[in-house]
Design goal:
15 strands, 2 helices, 2 domains, eight-stranded antiparallel sheet, 36% strand, four-stranded antiparallel sheet, 247 residues
Amino acid sequence: MKNKKLITTVIDNIKTLFWALLIAILIRSLIVQPFYIPSSSMEPTLLVGDRIFVTKFSYGYSKHSFPFSPNFSNNRFFSKKPKQGDLVVFKTPADNRTDYIKRLIGLPGDEIQFINGNLLINGKKVIREKTVSNEFIRCGNFIVNSVTYLETLPNGIKHLATYNRDGTLQNTNLYKVPDHHYFLMGDNRDCSKDSRFLNEVGYVTEQNLVGKAKIIFFSNDTNISSLLKIWNISKSFRAERTFKGLK
């Protein structure tokens, strides 16, 4: 009797774990997924150590909505078009596995170019207003003297973008966004590997869109301390960024 009761208990626990895991996978795949920001390419909007929630339903679903990107279909279901200025999580075209987050700058058919340090979309200079003249922004292991602007995209969306004061990004080729693709860039313009690097990221197909970043739910300054060092959490925890909405 004891063995039978033990077996029944084990089976019940396995069932409970199975359903809990299934529900977690469905929530992660269809509703919302947490992501960690490991790089400085989106400063000042997103900082290293930010943890964000990304809505999976914002653009519909593809194979990349699910863990390990199972190759069950090349279609997108319940597809919704992203908007210029969205903070988009996507799978990089180079390997279809790595998650990147960048800002959507160019829609299909748009022409993107930098001339004399100014961003042009379809031949028109993006309006920008200087907000901070001397701001030190992280770029990998370096701290860079930067200028931050409030940029206004053609659809009226405003966002912060930071440029190196030395002006490393002055002029580029003309990028013509193909059909069913998007052009995405980091807000830390001189410290971001994005669609400007055609051989490494390039134009992102709509199939590779994962979701839209909505909110920072937790932030810890890893430059001060890791989360593993609980005793330092009071120094590294960024309380002002908790539950901060993203735009």
